[in-house]
Structure to design on (275 residues):
């Protein structure tokens, strides 16, 4: 059985920390699932760390569904959360419901995530009423970077801090099972966490959240175009991969790969009979 939204909500009540990590492909998802991470997010960060876009804005439904399917195939236990791309839930409630349903019905995800608070609350309510678990996302919501003027910390002024709290309450009322808080001051994230009943999952929001999420390429030191302040590199995968690929390159050039060990034999008399 996969992790359910009730188990995630219970973790908050018990004071048990919740771990969430992104994955975008079968092989990586398999490792994340084997480790026991309960929440796997197929984030639209896919656009930057896998597809090479400058932001998450160009990511499409087709790309998200394709990668979500691979992550679902790679996991047995984790809840897989599909991230709704830019403008797939903004225009109409019907659009939002249909696109959310595609993650569940076509890609096999168990939940969806979308960005925004009060402005998307009605859409969240309608999606939840259809039986689709929804995770909210507040703070530095990357699909709004053009509006924010860049990747800037959110919530340092009284107005923005108050709005964050109101957005969190609106999402809670609308029926989300958890809320991501991205790049907000740690004391504000801790306060929001105390004031709402659903779990908060922080990224750059300090230790006071109920859980934490990171982009897997960041914690593995795999994506090195930039390293966010909020991440911790548990490995230097870029360097490990670069060294291995350079060795392969050198071996092929030198004729030292492949050897007999990596080759297949056959009855040589067959060769002799070839015309
Ligand atoms: O797209 C993503 O990976 C995300 C997380 C950073 C929360 O939204």
């Amino acid at each position: 059985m996969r992790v359910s939204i009730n188990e995630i909500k219970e973790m908050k009540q018990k004071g048990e920390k919740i771990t969430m990590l992104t994955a975008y492909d079968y092989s990586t998802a398999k490792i994340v699932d084997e480790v026991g991470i309960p929440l796997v997010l197929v984030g639209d960060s896919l656009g930057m760390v896998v597809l090479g876009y400058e932001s998450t804005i160009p990511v499409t439904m087709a790309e998200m569904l394709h990668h979500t399917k691979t992550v679902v195939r790679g996991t047995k236990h984790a809840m897989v959360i599909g991230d709704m791309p830019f403008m797939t839930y903004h225009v109409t409630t019907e659009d939002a419901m249909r696109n959310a349903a595609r993650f569940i019905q076509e890609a096999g995800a168990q939940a969806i995530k979308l960005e925004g608070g009060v402005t998307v609350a009605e859409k969240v309510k309608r999606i939840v009423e259809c039986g689709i678990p929804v995770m909210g996302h507040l703070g530095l919501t990357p699909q709004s970077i053009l509006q924010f003027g860049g990747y800037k910390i959110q919530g340092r002024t009284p107005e923005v801090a108050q709005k964050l709290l109101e957005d969190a309450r609106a999402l809670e009322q609308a029926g989300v099972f958890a809320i991501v808080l991205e790049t907000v001051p740690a004391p504000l994230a801790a306060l929001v966490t105390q004031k709402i009943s659903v779990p908060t999952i922080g990224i750059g929001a300090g230790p006071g959240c109920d859980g934490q999420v990171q982009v897997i390429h960041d914690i593995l030191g795999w994506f090195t175009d930039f390293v966010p302040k909020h991440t911790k590199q548990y490995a230097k995968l870029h360097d490990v991969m670069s060294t291995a690929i350079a060795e392969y390159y050198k071996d092929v050039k030198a004729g030292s790969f492949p050897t007999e060990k990596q080759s297949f034999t056959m009855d040589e008399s067959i060769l002799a009979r070839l015309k």
